[in-house]
Amino acid sequence: MTTTTPSATNRTAFLQNTALYVARIVREALPAAALVIVDTADRTLHEVRDQAGTVLWYAPASSAHALDDHMDEIESLLRRAIPDGGLTEAGWLRTLENPMHRAVQLPPPSRHARAHVRHEGLVLDVHADLVPADAASITFDAPDGTPRREIRDRVRAAIINSGYDLPHGALNIACHGTAAPSPSVDLAIAAAILATAGHINPRALKRTVLVGELGLDGRLRDPRVSIRYADLAGGYQRLIVPVPSAPADAAYPLIRGGSVHAATDLRQAVAFLAQPLNA
Predict the structure, then answer these.
(1) Does the model's pTM come out above 0.85?
(2) pLDDT tens-digit profile of 10-49?
(3) Which of 102, 225, 249, 264 is buried deepest, with most CB atoms within 10 A?
(4) Residues 236-255: tens digit of each pLDDT
(5) β-strands 238-242, 208-210: how paired?
(6) Cβ contacts of residue 51 below 8 Å, gap of 6+?
(7) How far is CA 37 from CA 1, 107, 158, 197, in A?
């Protein structure tokens, strides 16, 4: 029986993920990229093609291109992967045109959305990444102490009971912030998920703060958190919150040059996100 050492496992994992790393970088400049060809002799990126085989970029190109800004990072990855048959191990195939060229079909592009939570005691960004998969799944990456299952199940039920379809594929939700997520992040998580599913334009989330707890039926609950001007610093122009449970709790700050919207449920919050900023 063959024993795999930890170092060999790490090497194989890196080599198999090389295409994923290169794909993400290349697609920042060329969203339609589907095939990457490298020159193993020079250890350089040689060509990028789309799904139909049309050349999108090639190394001898003389004109400046947005991909040039990423070339150092791409070729640093290639220099680490090419030696000792690394690309072969990672599944890159020799091309018919040149024995020193190897090509790899990039994985299908993922969908990404980011939503923002800002209030006293919590500054947090929610990242949602959806990749194609045979079966739908949701994983929740958050700091220790987060009630992951409760938040995930509550948001999932609110989305379905509001009449929206969950995205089909492998969905990963990651929360990065100053503290463990509380129920006040429900609305932001739901919005990020709906953006990957195509129900919300991801750009609508860029300068928007979302704060609110969701009920299983999709209604928004006031999380009773304090939101101040200082919480909204950094270019945010829109605040979407639940309708306050009492007049005394209605002191949400106005955003200078922006807008504040109080929503009764998830559907109304989505409708607000469809409006242009400053509306």
Answers:
(1) no
(2) 666 666 667 677 777 888 888 888 898 988 888 888 999 9
(3) 102
(4) 999 999 988 655 445 578 88
(5) parallel
(6) 32, 34, 35
(7) 36, 14, 45, 31
- Three state DSSP letters for the chain: CCCCCHHHHHHHHHHHHHHHHHHHHHHHHCCCCCEEEEECCCCEEEEEECCCCCEEEECCCCCCCHHHHHHHHHHHHHHHHCHHHHHHHCCCEECCCCCCEEEEECCCCCEEEEEEEEECCEEEEEEEEEECCCCCEEEEECCCCCCHHHHHHHHHHHHHHCCCCCCCCEEEEEEEECCCCCHHHHHHHHHHHHHHCCCCCHHHHCCEEECCEECCCCEEECCCCCCCHHHHCCCCCEEEEECCCCHHHCCCCCCCCCEEEEECEHHHHHHHHCCCCCC
The tokens 């994983």 sit on which residue? 139
CA distance 59 to 97: 15
Given this model, what pLDDT does residue 229 score? 79
Q: CA dihedral in degrees (218, 221, 226, 232; nearest 10)? A: 20
Q: Which of 229, 239, 234 is nearest to 277 (CA)?
A: 239
Phi, psi of 168 (to 5 degrees): -90, 120
Does the pLDDT of residue 136 top 70, yes or no? yes
Give CA separation, 139 vs 63, 153, 172, in Å: 43, 11, 5
Distances (CA, A) of 9 to 13, 15, 101, 235: 6, 10, 26, 44
